[in-house]
Design brief:
By secondary structure, the protein is an alpha/beta fold. The chain has one domain (3-229): NAD(P)-binding Rossmann-like Domain (Rossmann fold). Helix content is 41%, strand content 14%. It contains seven helices and seven strands, in the order βαβαβαβααβαβαβ. It has a seven-stranded parallel β-sheet, with helices on both faces. Helix 6 (156-176) links the parallel strand 5 (137-141) and strand 6. Helix 3 (61-70) packs parallel to helix 5 (105-131). It binds NADP nicotinamide-adenine-dinucleotide phosphate. NADP nicotinamide-adenine-dinucleotide phosphate (NAP) binds at residues 7-8, 10-14, 32-34, 57-59, 82-85, 114, 141, 143, 187-188, 190-191, 193-196, 201.
Length: 237
């Protein structure tokens, strides 16, 4: 049986990944920061014993190390770094804190710690688990807002955090090639989740995840270091 670890598994895109992979017969390590409030995830886990719910704040590096110890020697086919933030919630009320002229640097720091440091730290800690698996994939959920040429939104913290994640992923893709590990970046589209604070998103959660899963399934080494969206289109860096 294949095993996937999903971060941010309690809502939005992460929860849907858990639902779909579990329904497809995968074992799912579903990480979220407050399992006691993750009602939908807990209900799924109650129905399906192949879902293990783990408490994990991805900014807590000691907790990531502890998770690594807990799962030592367990193969993880897909490390799916999904959890991320645009910025503080409520999003629309706080977005000016990452606009040039009124930047709150503590917000920028928090966004970088969440969207850039955390997925790379998880990859560092769990790389042996991925290497020991059949599929050997690290998938980082990014955004086309991280593209330097395709999008120029004023959300400086969010955009730069994803640009940095993209760059870091290309570096680890190259470094991990000799261990047969594939590292790839996917933008899920503008999806109707909490992140869609302005109600502009056109892509449903189910649609995004149903589109991403075959792309993840069919990843080969030639895709390592690639940056694509949920339709499979390559995004310009
Ligand atoms: N929705 C879009 O239009 C869109 C577009 C491009 C990229 N993305 C990316 O897609 C991914 C998923 O976002 P989403 O749309 O599903 O947004 P969401 O509904 O806001 O979900 C974000 C998830 O990340 C979790 N998270 C945030 N900080 C965390 C932390 N420190 N520790 C553990 N979990 C944490 C949240 O947990 P809590 O519930 O505890 O806050 C939540 O489960 C993100 O990486 C995002 O950047 C989304």
């Amino acid at each position: 049986m294949s095993i996937i670890l999903v971060t941010g598994a309690n809502q939005g895109i992460g929860l849907e990944f858990v639902r779909q992979y579990a329904a497809d017969g995968w074992e799912v390590i579903a990480c979220c920061r407050t399992p006691e409030k993750a009602d939908e995830l807990q209900a799924l886990a109650k129905e399906n014993p192949a879902i293990a719910v783990e408490k994990l704040d991805i900014c807590d590096h000691a907790a990531i190390d502890a998770l690594g110890d807990q799962y030592k020697n367990i193969p993880i086919d897909v490390l799916l770094n999904n959890a991320g933030i645009i910025g503080p919630v409520p999003i629309a009320e706080n977005i000016h804190r990452q606009h040039f002229g009124s930047i709150d640097y503590s917000v920028w720091q928090q966004v970088i710690e969440t969207n850039t440091f955390a997925p790379i730290k998880l990859a560092e800690v769990l790389v042996d688990n991925v290497a020991a698996s059949e599929q050997k994939k690290i998938v980082n959920i990014t955004s086309n807002v991280g593209s330097i040429v395709e999008r120029c939104l004023p959300a400086i913290a969010y955009g730069t955090s994803k640009t940095a994640l993209n760059k870091a992923t290309t570096v680890i893709a190259k470094q991990l090639r000799d261990r047969d590990i594939i590292a790839a970046l996917f933008c899920p589209g503008a999806v109707k989740t909490r992140m869609d604070a302005w109600g502009n998103a056109g892509v449903g959660i189910e649609e995004s995840v149903s589109s991403l899963r075959p792309l993840i399934d069919s990843l080969t080494m030639s895709d390592s270091g690639s940056y694509r969206d949920y339709t499979g289109r390559t995004i310009a860096w």
